[in-house]
Design goal:
- The complex is a heterodimer of chains A (349) and B (107).
- Chain A is globular and about 80 Å long.
- In chain A, the strands form three sheets. Chain A has a six-stranded mixed sheet, with helices on both faces. In chain A, strands 7, 9, 11, 12 and 13 form a five-stranded mixed sheet that branches. A two-stranded antiparallel ribbon of chain A has the order 8-10.
- The mean pLDDT of chain A is 94.
- Chain A has helices at 37-44, 58-63, 65-78, 93-110, 123-128, 144-159, 167-170, 187-199, 281-285, 293-302, 322-338; strands spanning 4-11, 28-31, 48-56, 83-86, 114-119, 134-137, 229-234, 238-240, 256-259, 271-273, 307-308, 311-314, 343-347.
- By secondary structure, chain A is an alpha/beta fold.
- Chain A starts with a strand and ends with a strand.
- Chain B has one domain (3-104).
- The chains are: A alpha/beta (349), B mainly alpha (107).
- Chains A and B meet through helix 1 of A and loops of B.
Chain lengths: 349, 107
């Protein structure tokens, strides 16, 4: 049987070209293995062969995504491989994102199996885990020795079109896919066994893992509230009447930034809520209930706070993904910082 | 081990002959000492540097190991290394270095 042909993608660092100072090199393709491909090739034994290695600088990819992707796709196509493998990227953010994006592009455009590997907290893992099989690695290249055999084993299975097992069996990051399977014991029995194990401090494995949310360390206390510029931000959906930017009532894909100049308080004639996840009557009849401009103006007049920031930021928290919410806040937090805001009151519903 | 140091070791081994080069490590943890030692014996385990796939098999020791301690001037050792010898987990480092020597050193 002939060997499956693989094209491998790595960045400038793993190609031995250099670190950050060489991160702007455009894509190039070399025949055979380069860098970690040596280890992959050894682990493939007689099943697969790396016919070419594509190398691209991490910064180049990040700054020229469309061009780089098109160029790399052409390179891959020219070798007509059976499979495409990128990385492993460990915890390198731009490298991981590039590995994920190129794997997805190859999968979507060429229809061949693709595989990459990265640390679970690599931003690329979060973005692409639903689309791709990503072998879970540790956070540094010191894990190469252990990561490569895992990637090679899964790659061989994928190339052969074999059925893949669960994430823990095959060492890939959970993709959020649920599959019906038959179990010997019914659910109630399994639940009781799990509970008994739990109260006895014995190991057990949940059948329904809960999403993990990160913890945000609280900021330091404000030194002097009387001089502080305070902004108000909400996920309660308060918007100017008519919702000019069409913020969605659920699963918001955007946020709004609106001027509070001249408003001593909000009324049902000036503002309303776009939120679709709670009874809007009370928020619509008195929007200050969600975005407390009235009391903040009072506090401003009384000198309790220095001033209320000119703009408020708003979105709808109803079913909005954590990913989107983080993205919104990263953007407007920078604007708030640039505007010299000292503290933010975040209201939700 | 960074790319430049890999290159230096590689050049020195070529210039003097691998059998004539001993590499002494000072890393504070067994794991990092082991990774560096593996790099100059079995090749760069991250496959990123000039020593990727190059098995130099050099002799490797850590500065807190008895072999090194006995080979150098005890006064200088006392002044330069003894402080760290008290702080580091010497047994763990010896164990790690010994396993690298047994598995990968050729000299």
């Amino acid at each position: 049987m002939s060997k499956y042909k693989v094209v491998h993608y790595i960045n400038q660092f793993f190609a031995g070209i250099g670190g950050e100072e060489k991160a702007n090199i455009p894509p190039e393709m070399r025949d055979g293995v380069v860098g970690p491909g040596m280890a992959l090739a050894a682990a493939f034994e007689d099943d697969m062969e790396i016919v070419a290695t594509i190398i691209c600088g991490d910064s180049y990819y990040a700054e020229n995504m469309e061009n780089a992707e098109a160029t790399i796709l052409e390179m891959v196509k020219s070798k007509s491989p059976d499979m495409f493998i990128a990385g492993p990227a460990f915890n390198a953010g731009r490298y991981g994102t590039a590995c994920g994006a190129i794997c997805k592009a190859v999968k979507d455009n060429l229809g061949i199996p693709v595989l990459t590997g990265m640390y679970v907290e690599n931003p690329g893992a979060d973005i692409f885990k639903k689309d791709l099989f990503i072998v879970e690695t540790k956070n540094s290249a010191a894990d190469m020795r252990k990561a490569i055999p895992k990637m090679a084993a899964l790659a061989i299975k994928m190339a052969k079109g074999e059925e893949l097992g669960s994430p823990s069996e095959e060492n890939y990051i959970e993709r959020g896919v649920r599959r019906n399977i038959f179990r010997e014991k019914r659910g109630a029995e399994r639940a009781v066994e799990m509970l008994v194990a739990k109260v006895n401090n014995k190991p057990f494995v949940t059948e329904y893992p809960m999403p993990v949310f990160d913890h945000v360390a609280p900021a330091a206390a404000l030194k002097d509230l009387k001089k502080a510029k305070i902004a108000v931000v909400t996920s309660g959906g308060i918007v100017p009447k008519g919702n000019p930017d069409h913020i969605e009532s659920s699963s918001a894909s955007k946020y709004g930034k609106y001027d509070l100049t001249g408003f001593d308080y909000l009324t049902d004639e000036t503002h309303e809520t776009a939120h679709g996840g709670y009874d809007p009557c009370y928020a619509n009849s008195n929007p200050n209930r969600v975005l407390p401009v009235d009391v903040l103006r009072d506090l401003e007049k009384e000198g309790v706070i220095g001033e209320l920031h000119k703009y408020f930021y708003t979105t709808v928290g109803n079913c909005t993904s954590v990913g989107n919410a983080v993205k919104f806040s990263k953007e407007y937090a920078q604007e708030l910082l640039a505007d010299g805001v000292d503290g933010v009151i975040m209201t939700s519903t | 081990m960074d790319l430049e140091n890999q290159n230096r070791v590689k050049d020195l081994a070529e210039k003097h002959g691998a059998e004539n080069v001993v590499v002494i490590f000072g890393a504070a943890e067994a794991e990092s000492a082991g990774l560096s030692a593996e790099t100059v014996t079995n090749g760069d385990p991250t496959f990123a540097g000039p020593l990727a796939g190059v098995q130099l098999g050099l002799a490797v020791y850590h500065a807190v190991e008895p072999e090194f301690k006995e080979a150098v001037d005890s006064d200088v050792y006392e002044e330069q290394v003894s402080m760290m010898e008290m702080v580091l987990d010497v047994d763990e480092i010896i164990e790690e270095m010994t396993s690298i020597r047994n598995d990968f050193s050729k000299y």
